[in-house]
Design brief:
Blueprint: H1 7-18, H2 22-31, H3 46-53, H4 59-67, H5 92-100
Length: 108
């Protein structure tokens, strides 16, 4: 089943991600969990969007998105999934932070 979210609400959701408003995101996702699967223009869901387009400290938002059921295997229009984003130089410290806080686990 496909759920269509009005354009304005979608913009607000991605703005909250960009601004790293974790508490507001948590409230929004608890009341409207369908937002977790909403896509941007590059077919990034909330998890991929946070990894690829949000700067600064993001590990707590990523933790929230994973706990809320975000699909870590989903691929965007460039063929990238969540784990692929850690190969990008901009995400190396993010990867370390996610392992450090046991949000993800390193298989090495």
């Amino acid at each position: 089943m496909v759920v269509f979210i009005p354009f304005f609400k979608k913009q607000v959701f991605f703005l909250l991600l960009k601004k790293r408003e974790r508490k507001l995101l948590e409230q929004l996702l608890q009341s409207s969990p369908e937002f977790i699967n909403e896509l941007d223009e590059d077919e990034n869901d909330a998890l991929l969007y946070t990894c690829l387009k949000v700067s600064g400290l993001r590990h707590r938002i990523i933790e929230l998105l994973i706990k809320m059921g975000s699909n870590m295997e989903r691929r965007n229009s460039q063929g990238l999934n969540f784990m692929d984003t850690f190969q990008l130089s901009r995400n190396r410290s993010l990867s370390k932070k996610l392992v450090e806080f046991e949000i993800i686990f390193n298989d090495n």
